[in-house]
């Protein structure tokens, strides 16, 4: 059973999506990811967007660890219902409505949000069959709505190619955990380089 790993709601079990419609992030990958994000100072008071949320496990973990707001975006009915259950669990634990659920296709949701700095951290765990061109389109929309010092994390199969990053994002590293690979990107500055001119050290191509 999946659980919240750390923070105010640490140890609380999470509801899972029945069947095989979604592919949950393993606790091992989740723990490694959030240890990295915590080290980078990307969680506390952050505005977080969890796309293709599934059960919402990534987003509610962020809320437990101190994120200011979290939006879970999921289109599949059963998965969205599980997101609602897990959101209520964490909201009760943190004593505020930190997590909200948007039942919507990712593209439709992003189209309704005007460009501007809306999120500090965007977590994306798209279904593996999602085409690379479709993924790039979503990343392009995300880049237009990311804070200047924001971060995007894309979870894909270890056998999938590197995402084709749009002009607004710069890939600066990755992590591999068994069959899962995490890709990290940040906003591009002038000339297409990382916004800080050097890139972050969050993932420097290491594997685990």
TrEMBL record:
This is Methyltransferase. It comes from Sinomonas humi. One of its GO terms (molecular function) is methyltransferase activity. GO terms for biological process: rRNA methylation. The keyword Transferase applies. NCBIfam families: 16S rRNA (guanine(966)-N(2))-methyltransferase RsmD. Keywords: Methyltransferase, Transferase. The keyword Cell inner membrane does not apply.
């Amino acid at each position: 059973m999946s659980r919240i790993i750390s923070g105010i709601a640490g140890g609380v079990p999470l509801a899972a999506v029945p069947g095989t419609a979604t592919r949950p992030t393993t606790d091992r990958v989740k723990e490694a990811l959030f240890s990295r994000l915590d080290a980078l100072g990307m969680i506390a008071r952050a505005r977080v967007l969890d796309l293709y949320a599934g059960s919402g496990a990534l987003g509610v973990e962020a809320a437990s660890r101190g994120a200011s707001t979290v939006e879970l975006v999921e289109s599949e009915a059963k998965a969205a219902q599980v997101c609602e259950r897990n959101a209520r669990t964490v909201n009760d634990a943190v004593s505020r409505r930190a997590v909200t659920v948007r039942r919507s296709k990712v593209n439709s949701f992003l189209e309704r949000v005007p460009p501007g700095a809306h999120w500090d951290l965007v977590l994306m765990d798209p279904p593996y069959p999602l085409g690379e061109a479709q993924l790039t389109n979503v990343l392009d929309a995300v880049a237009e709505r990311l804070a200047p010092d924001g971060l995007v994390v894309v979870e894909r199969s270890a056998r999938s190619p590197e995402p084709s990053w749009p002009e607004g994002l710069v890939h600066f590293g990755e992590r591999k955990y068994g069959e899962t690979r995490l890709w990290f990107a940040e906003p591009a500055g002038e000339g297409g380089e990382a916004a800080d001119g050097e890139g972050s050290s969050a993932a420097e191509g290491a594997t685990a």
